[in-house]
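R.M. (postdoc): so does anyone remember the format we settled on? I'll just put the structure tokens first.
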């Protein structure tokens, strides 16, 4: 099941590209990236940015040692100081291209908790429909080790899954995956394409990041690539150390592309295997016929009854009138509210619920047919 929306791309920008050695934002370079982003949007690609650099920038502004990573308190103070400047810079440069920016700060828990996960997807979806470019970073001011994603490579992968993006571009200070460390081994060769991140590929990951100012290294990039590919999302690792990095990527043979596995099987495996099924929504024959065509959401009008004690975001089975389970997905409502709106028409839902209704009982983006 490939995403039904326009081409959607997550671009992750590493700290060393955004912040120079004396602690200033590399504005001139960033303006070339933003110009590329404007060109991609003009060609109907929706863009989501995952921006690092808050800790690095804040640490230099506050004069903190070890890049602001000497203690948790230092990192949190640096992040708080750097983030506001960083977001302001992004917003100003995007505004010069007539593009509106939005800021989202998230932690790992926001992706693990099903209700918060659905809220992230809904917010991203709304921002996309409004033509806004989200600028996303980890909420480092509250994130302690237990609840952190920890690096923005993996954060970009989680954001891409939540947004149902088509691909992820990791702009970094390494120019792709090499067979050996290119700084010390003259025989090292760039690997242009990887179809599976297996043990042989992981073994190439000795070289690390050359700058040392971000959190990620090549290992976190390969982890992100593997997870993205399993979820049906391509990931490209490429150097951002040139002006107009997206134009360069489009026109030259650079970087490493990690190719997605077929999305249908990946998503099915995730939904079928990862979470316990908490309830069942039984639907009428018309709704069953509509769902079986694929790409169709389950509306309240097509539902007949509900069983189980599920919360919003829990996995539910969808069964036809004979009890045969035909689909599985994430419920947009808890069991009580689902029961209240079973069989009801969309225009009546707000009155029954007392709040603005969701687009569906189970959205097709969060549903697999069985
Ligand atoms: N969230 C961190 C920051 O903004 C960066 C994490 C990373 O470098 O991967 O400074």
């Amino acid at each position: 099941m490939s995403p039904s929306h326009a081409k959607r791309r997550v671009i992750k920008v590493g700290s060393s590209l955004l912040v120079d050695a004396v602690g200033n934002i590399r504005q001139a370079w960033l303006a070339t990236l933003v110009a590329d982003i404007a060109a991609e949007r003009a060609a109907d690609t929706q863009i989501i940015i995952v921006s690092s650099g808050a800790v690095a920038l804040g640490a230099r502004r506050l004069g903190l040692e070890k890049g602001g990573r000497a203690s948790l308190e230092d990192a949190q103070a640096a992040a708080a100081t750097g983030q506001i400047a960083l977001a302001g810079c992004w917003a100003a440069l995007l505004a010069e291209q007539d593009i509106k920016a939005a800021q989202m700060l998230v932690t790992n828990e926001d992706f693990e908790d099903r209700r918060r996960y659905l809220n992230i997807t809904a917010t991203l979806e709304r921002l996309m429909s409004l033509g806004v470019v989200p600028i996303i970073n980890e909420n480092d001011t509250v994130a302690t080790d237990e609840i952190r994603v920890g690096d923005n490579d993996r954060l970009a992968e989680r954001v891409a899954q939540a947004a149902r993006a088509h691909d992820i571009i990791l702009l970094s200070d390494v120019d792709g995956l090499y067979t050996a460390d290119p700084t010390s081994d003259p025989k090292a060769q760039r690997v242009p394409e990887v179809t599976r991140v297996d043990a042989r590929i992981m073994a190439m990951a000795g070289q690390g990041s050359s700058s040392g100012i971000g959190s990620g290294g090549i290992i976190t990039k390969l982890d992100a690539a593997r997870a993205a590919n399993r979820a049906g999302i391509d990931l490209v690792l490429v150097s951002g150390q040139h002006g107009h990095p997206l134009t360069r990527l489009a026109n030259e043979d650079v970087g490493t592309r990690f190719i997605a596995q077929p999305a249908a099987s990946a998503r099915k495996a995730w939904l079928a295997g990862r979470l316990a099924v908490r309830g069942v929504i039984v639907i009428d024959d018309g709704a069953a016929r509509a769902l079986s065509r694929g790409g169709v959401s389950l509306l309240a009008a097509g539902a007949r009854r509900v069983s189980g004690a599920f919360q919003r975001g829990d996995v539910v089975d969808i069964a036809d009138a004979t009890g045969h389970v035909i689909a599985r997905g994430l419920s947009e409502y808890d069991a009580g509210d689902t029961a209240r709106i079973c069989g009801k028409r969309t225009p009546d839902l707000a009155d029954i619920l007392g709040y603005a209704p969701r687009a569906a009982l189970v959205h097709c983006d969060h549903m697999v047919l069985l």
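R.M.: ...and that's the designed sequence above, right after the tokens. Also worth knowing: Residues 15, 52-56, 79, 137-138, 140, 151-152, 214-216 surround glutamic acid (CB under 6 Å). DSSP finds 14 helices and 13 strands in the chain.
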